[in-house]
Design a protein that fits this description.
Layout: E1 9-13, H1 17-30, E2 34-39, H2 42-46, E3 56-60, H3 68-78, E4 84-88, H4 96-102, E5 106-109, H5 113-125
Parallel strand pairs: 1-2, 1-3, 3-4, 4-5
């Protein structure tokens, strides 16, 4: 009797190619997840036709063209139950209140990404929120 292992389907949205590639490699090879889409900015992400199929969307906040906040808001408006995790370099620009109000289910700082990403994804898939302990509470 073979058990099918659940492989979360992930979309990566980030403007840094090197980062995207290493994240994709980590998700596929180390964690055995399925990457079903990659976008370099918010506009490209919103143009994907499989957003609704993603179990998790990993989205950079600071991107050209359309940033993560606007892209997440628009995506959630069209697809209510998206699990979007913010990924950011900028601790001082990642405010818990703004992220939660936008609809992000979690946040991971890039410097801790490979340590925290699996836990973040597992929590969000269990309908729990995942935010770093040292995230700023106040808003812009």
């Amino acid at each position: 009797m073979s058990m099918t292992v659940f492989k979360p389907k992930v979309i990566i949205v980030d403007d840094n190619e090197t980062f995207r590639r290493s994240l994709e490699f980590h998700l596929k090879i180390t964690l055995n997840y399925e990457v079903i889409g990659i976008a370099t900015d918010g506009e490209e992400f919103l143009a994907l036709n499989n957003i609704h199929k993603a179990d998790i969307i990993l989205m950079d906040i600071e991107m050209p063209v359309l940033n993560g906040f606007v892209a997440a808001k628009k995506a959630i408006w069209s697809h209510k139950n998206l699990n979007i995790i913010a990924i950011t370099n900028y601790q001082d620009k990642a405010y818990l209140k703004d992220l939660i109000e936008t609809g992000f289910k979690g946040c991971v700082f890039k410097r801790n990404l490979f340590d925290d990403i699996e836990l973040a994804i597992k929590n969000v898939l269990k309908n729990k929120l995942y935010f770093p302990e040292d995230i700023e509470l106040n808003s812009l």
